[in-house]
Design brief:
This protein has seven helices and nine strands. Strands 3-2-1-4-5-6-9 form a seven-stranded parallel beta sheet, with helices on both faces. A two-stranded parallel sheet has the order 7-8. By secondary structure, the chain is of the alpha/beta class. The chain has a single domain, classed as NAD(P)-binding Rossmann-like Domain (Rossmann fold). Helix 6 links the parallel strand 7 (207-208) and strand 8. The mean pLDDT is 90. Helix 1 (31-42) crosses helix 2. 43% of the residues are buried.
Length: 275
Amino acid sequence: MRETPSPESQRIFAPGILDGDVAIVTGGGSGIGLATATEMVRAGARVAICGRTLDKLEAARAELAASVGGDAAERVHVGTCDIREPDQVSAFVAGVIARWERVDVLVNNAGGQFPSPAQMISPNGFLAVVKNNLVGTFHMTREVANASMIPRQRGRIVNVTANVYRGFPGMVHTGAARAGVENMTMSLAVEWSQFGIRVNAVAPGVITSTGTKRYPPELLALALKASPARRFGSIDEVAAAIVFLVSPAAQFISGATLRIDGGQSLWGDTWQLPG
């Protein structure tokens, strides 16, 4: 397997590029969410992270502060929130605005799924994944837009989806939900352009994180074999792409989905690569 870039190689942003910004990162207690929150704080933002377990969020804040140093801990707000529950979403967003007066950036990273053949997924299992990945994303997006971005006529939103550009066998529930998030990204990019809100998405391929460690080794081996890059991605590479999309460098990008997969979504079985 080819070498994965070090976290340091992803730290390319100008110091202070997000100075003054207030960001919310859902699912910020680990993985891509924590890496994104860390990079945003490093770039000057104040960041609110949420999840369902307070102890995990507090540990994430401590890890972030140790990584960034300085006053990083003071620029991180934590709060529990199940994005599937509108009342919890409203309360969390209200808490962020009470502390920092606004929300400039929203990263919808929270989600979850489990591998299963479609015929083995129960109605409740399918609904749970759709609520987690699609419905919850809409709840948070709508609340942040109405509470801060639309009144202030500005904002940047990035949705973390998945690589669903062919079929997604074994993951039909999340494939359907994430495809819905991608269409929502495009729809809101047009509809909310009148409010100065940009909406984009990133679609990570197989990323080495706490999530992938739960999958069977044989499944990961097949995924590695299907990657033209001959390696998995890193959470820092995804975080860098998200920060780019919310930075001033991406002011004319809206409605786009950036694939972060080493070309995996483009490669079928009709062209063999050496090695």
